[in-house]
Description:
Layout: H1 2-39, H2 41-45, E1 51-57, E2 60-67, H3 70-81, E3 88-91, E4 94-95, H4 104-118, E5 127-132, E6 135-142, H5 145-156, E7 163-166, E8 169-170, H6 175-186, H7 195-208, E9 218-222, E10 225-229, H8 235-246, E11 253-256
Parallel strand pairs: 2-3, 2-4, 6-7, 6-8, 10-11
Antiparallel strand pairs: 1-2, 5-6, 9-10
Amino acid sequence: MMNRMCHLALFATLVSTFASCAFLSASKTDDQIEASVQQSYVFRNYLREDNITIQAKDGRVTLTGLVLNESHKFLAGDTVASLSGVLEVENKLKEIPAPSPMHTDELLVSKVQLLLSFHRNVNASETEIFAQDGMVTLHGKATSMVQKDLTTAYVKDVEGVKNVVSEMTVASAGPEQDEKARAQGMNPKDKTIDDASIAVLVEMMLLNHRSTSSLTPIILAKEGVVRLRGNARNAATKELIGKYANDVYGVKRVINEMSFE
């Protein structure tokens, strides 16, 4: 009888110990998820001024708080969903009520500014954007004619833009100075870019460019290498998607496995 009681007591102790370890392990994983969210490139750079609360429990993450606009809500939710260990995301973020409804052109300027900031081969911080009835005018500085033309082409392909007039100036410098300025324009202030952020930036960019907005490729990022899968309309569209993805901050290489008929 005593022997049986000892076995039962030992069994109960083991069960209790296992349950405690499982709880501690789950709690540690949830803490790691919350830390990963806060340390992600998207949260550190694009969402740093938003008021976002992150709660993880058993791999299920709930986001609450206020963000600047719908794009920020999308960025937050999709970045969290792309992180390792996350099983589900409940995005309860709300937009900050604007003092007055934003004009269509104001929304367009905001969209163009955000989209240019994803591209590393343009000088987004030195580009001034004005819009009137969908007609966009660009001012500011480009480090070369190639960069000026590329900026114009990218903006023309943004959903809602009817036409673009570029009045950007090109910096006059020798080859060495020009290359140095171009390199500075291509590098983000924060060079530590995680794979979850890379995947979301590529996705966001493709959704907001007119030529690629109707396509939903599968985007996988690992150590800066982006793999694209899914269907493209044709060879030209596949090439364009690859080109756009390759111009996102943090992308080291693109493996384009998209197919078309």
